[in-house]
Amino acid sequence: MNRTSDLYQFLYGKQTIDLVNRSYFSDPKWNTTIVTPSDLEKVVLNARDMFVHAHHGRGVLNVSHFQMNYRKPLETCFTYNGQWKQKDLTPIMSNEDDTLVLYVDINQDHYAFTSLTAGMSLCIHPPDEPFDTKTPCTSLSPGHAYEVKLSVHDYTYLPDPYNSYQSMDCTTATKSSLKKILKYFYHYSYRGCLMECLTDKILEECGCITEHEIQNASSNYCSVTQREGCVSSVRNKFNTDTLYASNISGLCYCPRPCSNVLYDQDLSASFFPADSLIDYLKAGNFATGLEDARSNLMMIKISFKSLMLTHISHVPDVTLDDLVSRMGGLMGFYIGASVLTLLEVVDVIIRSVSTIIASYFSVEIVNNKVKPELNKTTVKDGMPNKS
Description:
By secondary structure, the protein is of the alpha+beta class. The chain has helices at 6-15, 37-41, 47-50, 175-178, 190-206, 224-241, 245-251, 278-283, 290-296, 320-375, and strands at residues 51-56, 59-60, 66-72, 75-80, 100-105, 120-123, 137-140, 144-156, 259-271, 297-313, 377-380, 383-386.
């Protein structure tokens, strides 16, 4: 690349921004300097440069099987089976022997500016979901042969009022019913919805897009001044706001599905290549020697550990039926206890009244028996005598 070109100076400034003057991009020349994806393709490594050889099962892959995207600004990625922009989703592995094998050359001698590490990142995600900086990735370094065994975990979370996914609400609606929300993707995903929302926000406030946003033929690409000013500001604010579930609804309508698929990786590594392989690599013009090979080449094997799918569902500790039955039981207990107590009180009152009445009538009967005997007493000769 011509070191006097604006593109070179832009990339140099981006890579060395912490080392150079912070006002580097305030130069008026950047107002008219536009960086497009086609410009970047001229300076980045392409699939033909990186993939020395690739095969899936018994089928050999070519560069057309790898689609170049941008995980973040100026970070190129090559996606295999990235079907999130296609209508039909087909499985790429149907048995345990289906293995994806990649021989990668990182071309370390072409690294520029202030690259601190040498290697690549491996990001594995569902095919109907685009990747971004939040997609979990594994860093791989040259000089190793990696074997990646995948386990698939399907999670189902609980919506409001439980909100079992990081205390955030989710929707039980199917992805097929949610896809009408999106404009650019055939398959609905939460990340895809956020990417569309961010693209719309940048278009609305800046009037242009960069290589990282969703590409639209009718959109203009930003100048360097717009990239470093408006676009960077909108993107940083959006990323900060979307960290909190309460803020997302105020930015865009992106329901989070209550189901999610994650891939757990078991990674093992060994040195690559072996000494005995050097002659073959030299004959194929893949490396000039062992040192060159271990500085640039790596082998990656990706397969499933098993064809078993682990489904993990969140269930409430107390369901509505449990709550109603418990409340009914407690109400029955307390009502039963209250009625029993009331009956006991009534019984005591009745017994007390009965006792009082019985005592009263017994006194009257005694008095009635005494009075007739007194009436039979007569007086004779001044002395009372009984007749």
